[in-house]
């Protein structure tokens, strides 16, 4: 084998490792809740909608604060560490990113609405 075959194998292996590691880290960042579990517990903490203001204004879970993903990354310290955080977005992708970021900043009780608002069966405001 030529040297570049080894380099390609190494690079491919490294990328697979990074991909698997990121998936594991994302799963450890928060606990995903079904809509029923989310409804049952969301009033016990900080309910955060990480979507844009336009999406929030179009319909959101009653009692939620709208703090989009970019604002969370700039002003995360406005969230309390002594209360659980309940996150949601449209599909679960942005809330997962927010959860991973918040976990890296020392927040521990982070919950997400599994599959986001599209999975929500409750009323919207």
Radius of gyration: 18 Å
Straight-line distance between termini: 63 Å
Query: What is the residue-averaged pLDDT?
Result: 91
Structural class: alpha/beta
Shape: elongated
Sheet of most strands: 5 strands, parallel
If helices are DSSP runs of H or I spanning 4 or more residues, what is the number of helices?
5
Helical content stands at 40-55%
How much of the sequence is in beta strands? 5-15%
Number of strands: 5
Overview of this protein structure:
With 125 residues, this protein is an alpha/beta fold. 47% of the residues lie in helices and 14% in strands. It contains five helices and five strands; from the N terminus they run H-E-H-E-H-E-H-E-H-E. Strands 1-5-4-2-3 form a five-stranded parallel β-sheet. The longest helix is centred in the first third of the chain and has 27 residues, at 3-29. The protein is elongated and about 65 Å long.
Secondary structure: elements and pairs:
Layout: H1 3-29, E1 31-33, H2 35-41, E2 46-49, H3 53-58, E3 65-66, H4 69-75, E4 85-88, H5 93-104, E5 110-113
Summarize the structure.
The protein has 125 residues and is α/β, with parallel strands linked by helices.
Attribute tags:
alpha/beta, 5-stranded parallel beta sheet, 125 residues
């Amino acid at each position: 084998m030529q040297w570049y075959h080894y380099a390609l194998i190494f690079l491919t292996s490294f990328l697979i490792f990074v991909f698997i590691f990121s998936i594991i880290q994302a799963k450890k960042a928060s606990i995903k809740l079904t809509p029923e579990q989310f409804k049952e517990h969301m009033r016990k903490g900080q309910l955060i909608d990480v979507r844009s203001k336009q999406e929030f204004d179009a319909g959101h879970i009653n009692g939620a604060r709208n703090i989009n993903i970019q604002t969370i990354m700039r002003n995360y310290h406005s969230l309390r560490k002594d209360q659980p955080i309940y996150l949601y977005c449209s599909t679960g992708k942005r809330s997962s990113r927010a959860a991973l970021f918040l976990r890296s900043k020392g927040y521990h009780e982070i919950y997400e609405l599994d599959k986001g608002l599209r999975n929500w069966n409750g009323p919207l405001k």
